[in-house]
Amino acid sequence: MTVTVRFAPSPTGHIHIGNARTALFNWLFALKHQGRFILRFDDTDAARSKQEYADQIQRDLHWLGIHPDVIAHQSARFDTYAAAVERLKGAGLLYQCWETAEELERRRRLRLSRKLPPVYGREALKLTDEQKAAYEAEGRRPHWRYLLPNFTDNPFETQRTEIVWDDVVRGPQTVDLSSMSDPVLVREDGTYPYTLPSVVDDIDLGISHVIRGDDHVANTGVQIALFRALDAEPPAFGHHNLLTTADGEGLSKRSGALSIRSLAEDGIEPMAVASLAVLIGTSESVTAVRSLEELAERFEPKATSKSASKFDPTELVALNKVLLHATPFADVDQRLHGFGITGPKAEPFWLAVRANIEKLADCASWWQIVTEGPRKVEFDEADGSFLRVAFDHLPSEPWDGMTWKIWTDRLKEQTGRKGKQLFMPLRLALTGLDRGPELADLLPIIGREETLARRPG
């Protein structure tokens, strides 16, 4: 059997780091098992689903390094869902219900007041044809519920009915169908909530493993029962813990918080996002991983904690720095062109500055310093006098990695300065900043002529 997984976002907003966690769990699982990855847009909500969001989700996945084998849209499959509905009706497993939301809420409160579980009591099964006709005459339209297999003969006498599965992430799991309401599979307007289209698609697309957030654990019992009602073998299920903000709040596509697009625009590297999104809340330490292939080797679903994990964006910046500091020039060459960093100086420049940047865009200011000159700095009389002597003793060309040492050793002998008194005025004169890349690396890139041009007046 070919392992086949799916990521099923609703295109109703921008995906965030929590959504990326689910996508990456599925992608890495497919990588580990040489499987297939399907991107399925759950876009049955025509009012809220937008093509612009679907397009952005695809761009976000590509940015992360995820390239789906198949892309499917639920909005193109309504005929398939309608056929499944007719099968279930024919088997007597769907029944009409006429209650309004207000009536259902009153019943729920009544059951709670009697210390009964707030599940639907299947009252609609007791309606006569005359009562149904009366509802229709009022202008009501029915919704359709799936009759859960949690009874023997009498649907009003439910009994404990366990759905058991070995969760890919959480291990053995059990859901009791008698504790649940019969789910609505078709709304009054003929549209479909999540449950039926998801199961039908998983069957038709050959999904072998469903890996998703643990807010779906209870749904899984219902879905497994529905797979069986449609004469299909359920896939394996896995439920990972969810991410929250640092304050413990849930993430939302509609709020735009920590969206993948915003993180990319902010200069965060894809593997910084992937490393944190996958490793946080697992037994693995959160470290910067250089590729998805390497991350797949470290990925072990069962190592995931069962409690929610708080996501701190500052950790992304720390991982970003580690990744950039170890990135070879060939991996950023084309991206540096976007900042005007080209030519023979580009590679030595990158090797000199990469250990001093948090984001790639930080290179731009250093390139300006190297090629156009430092920020203006005012020196006191003592440092000004020292610098005039220093620039008089610049070594002759050619310059290389030893030039800085030769120059500063010479100045120690000539001026008696050492340590910060020696190095800080030189750094300020050359770069205009009191910290930054090693001057031994920068000096050959600046060159002797440009260095002389930085001599204080």
Automatic annotation (TrEMBL):
Domain Glutamyl/glutaminyl-tRNA synthetase class Ib catalytic: residue ranges: 3-316
Chain ranges for the short sequence motif 'KMSKS' region as given in the UniProt record: 250-254
Catalytic activity reported: tRNA(Glu) + L-glutamate + ATP = L-glutamyl-tRNA(Glu) + AMP + diphosphate
Places the protein is found: Cytoplasm
Record keywords, A-Z: Aminoacyl-tRNA synthetase, ATP-binding, Cytoplasm, Ligase, Nucleotide-binding, Protein biosynthesis
Occurrences of domain Aminoacyl-tRNA synthetase class I anticodon-binding (ranges): 386-454
Main location group: cytoplasm
Residues binding ATP: K253
Record SUPFAM superfamilies: An anticodon-binding domain of class I aminoacyl-tRNA synthetases, Nucleotidylyl transferase
Function text: Catalyzes the attachment of glutamate to tRNA(Glu) in a two-step reaction: glutamate is first activated by ATP to form Glu-AMP and then transferred to the acceptor end of tRNA(Glu).
PANTHER family: GLUTAMATE--TRNA LIGASE (PTHR43311), GLUTAMATE--TRNA LIGASE, MITOCHONDRIAL-RELATED (PTHR43311:SF2)
Protein name (record): Glutamate--tRNA ligase
Organism: Aquamicrobium zhengzhouense
Gene: gltX
